[in-house]
Amino acid sequence: MSVEDILKDAFALKDGEALPYEVTLTGEVVSIDTPYDDNYKNVTVTIKVNGVKIQCYRMVGDGIDQIRETDTITVTGVIENY
Description:
The chain has 82 residues and is mostly beta strands. The protein has one helix spanning 3-11, and strands spanning 18-37, 42-49, 52-59, 72-80. It starts with a helix and ends with a strand.
């Protein structure tokens, strides 16, 4: 599935819906929406993928506490419209 198809499907989701498949996207961090939290060990960022901004909510993983704006990251998970 192409990145364009993934983004199209993601932005067609209604509130509370999720894609029925896991995706991997690579993009540039354009904002740190919720800073890294030592208690929950997560961070929320917005990345730009092919010119489209999409939020990565409560992201976890190795090095997550080191993410900065302008970093290029790859994320894997299920996209849900919160």
